[in-house]
Specification:
Layout lengths: L1 H36 L3 H26 L1
């Protein structure tokens, strides 16, 4: 009986370790992707400029349709 419980505990611990390892891999991948994209003000500025340019294009398209 104790052998069965030990086996179950061992399997449960193994599953927990695998889940933890997967979470660590995902967290590392997320950190790495953030580093590649750029961080801080430069990426924020680039995003804002793209957003404003998109809104400006949308405005110009709507003005062309009116004419």
């Amino acid at each position: 009986m104790y052998e069965i419980m030990d086996l179950q505990i061992w399997k449960q611990r193994r599953e927990e370790m695998l889940r933890e390892a997967e979470q660590n891999r995902l967290a590392k991948a997320l950190r790495d992707s953030r580093k590649r994209r750029g961080s801080g003000r430069a990426s924020s500025l680039a995003w804002e400029l793209k957003r404003i340019a998109g809104r400006l294009r949308k405005l110009l398209r709507s003005l062309r349709k009116i004419d």
